[in-house]
């Protein structure tokens, strides 16, 4: 029986053994039972983890801008080739947010994010044999050699020049708001927004051109005798064509990125010139002597080798230079902006690159999701540092005031009242306007932290003072005085730790307030400045009626995240207050 009783005792729970609980365990138990508080904690921790952990993998340069990707709605449809085209493709080309393809029967397909004009495919084209895709317009040729265009209808893009009537077309190219056509007799005709794109057909007036490649700035031409000519009116880095390929006319294929040009020579080697952006000059050794075709996006190049495989290099922020393993037996290759496509010998299609954007892009082409992550880091960091400053000052002033009382208490509390009576937002705006333009971006952020910290400590000081007044005459304080403990140690080592739970509760609520205040200042243009993101200055760029009505994702997602974060912190703070003060549940 003795052993049996002992065994039964060991199986009892802690609460059965001991009905008394420590204050800490009581707080934790009460907090866990509060579903709203725990839900708020889970939401806040999730947002915090996303903002501080995900940027390790999702990175974007703060100074990044891309006019071809601005104001793109959320979605992943850029590479969504229609099923009817996947095994029957003849030609596929990509624009910045969409794709256009032609099957072997000459039917045209479109996918991705399309404007209304892009959806208006001409019905009388017949059997289409070739297409070219620009920023937001398309060129097409049918089997009779007739030329068609649709999409962007300003700058004369929708009107085919009269000098092309009756001409047989050898090559077509669609760039950024421009169209370029090469006739069979080697003449080049261009039209569209020539003020935005630097193209001069006079550069090849006496040459017979084979093909033309364009980017968002200019174009280059390949002549029938194997030479490369820049079509830019002004001198650019693309004019510096390597002499060894110009003099001997060895060029078979050409490609163009935003800042560099590339050529495949007759011996299968690849030459690149222009500006060495994204290490574009570092041509992989495995393609040299084996290249048969080449294409370029905005910052990357793709080469098809003689064994039918693809090799890519250059910028890879959207996986555009990461060729999938199934990209073999290649018959045709096409690259545009950040997308790539190969048509295999059996007619099947393989695509890779930019699929779209989870939360869309802003007016400068920046990924809203990445900006929210980095903005959350900034907003939470500013709020956290500001709270530390507030509580350092508040605990110091409140502790001294409550412990000593008398004249010290009167002076310190009057100081707190003076600081507390200052109109916070107007004063912060004035200080930011006077000093903000004279300091660096980092200095401006530090200034915002200091403003929030030095003007927001008064409430905490009053709370600490009240708690210290309640604790200073208790037995443990009297005992510490009797033992000769220094007064500063009594205040900050004995009294303050006993009221720390109340301070922590106030800290959570003040943290949310600081985040909202920083966001408010940034929204008004006096907080964290661009290009450094914060949730406030992301909303600052969304004040126009056009953005609110047409580009809803730019303001909905930052405001939702900011709202969720502050509400969740307040819910947790309220739950923590109730857990610390059990009597609060009875009121």
User: What is the makeup of the main sheet?
Assistant: 3 strands, antiparallel
Structural class: alpha+beta
How far apart the termini lie comes to 50 Å
Mean pLDDT level: 86
Helix content: 25-40%
Hey, roughly how much beta strand do the residues contain?
Answer: 15-25%
| Main sheet strand line-up | 1-2-3
The tally of strands reads 21
Radius of gyration: 34 Å
Can you tell me the overall shape? elongated
- Low-confidence stretches are 1-7
Q: What is the number of helices?
A: 17
Can you walk me through this structure?
The protein is an alpha+beta fold and 587 residues long. Helix content is 39%, strand content 20%. It has 17 helices and 21 strands. The chain has helices spanning 2-10, 14-17, 23-33, 35-53, 83-86, 243-246, 368-404, 406-421, 424-435, 441-454, 458-471, 475-482, 487-498, 500-523, 535-540, 545-550, 553-580; strands at 89-94, 98-103, 108-112, 128-133, 137-142, 147-151, 169-174, 178-183, 188-192, 209-214, 219-223, 228-230, 251-256, 260-265, 270-274, 291-296, 300-305, 310-314, 330-336, 339-344, 349-353. The strands form 7 sheets. The protein has a 3-stranded antiparallel beta sheet with strand order 1-2-3. The protein has a 3-stranded antiparallel beta sheet with strand order 4-5-6, with no helix packed on it. Strands 7-8-9 form a 3-stranded antiparallel beta sheet, with no helix packed on it. Helix 7 (368-404) runs antiparallel to helix 8 (406-421). 42% of the residues are buried.
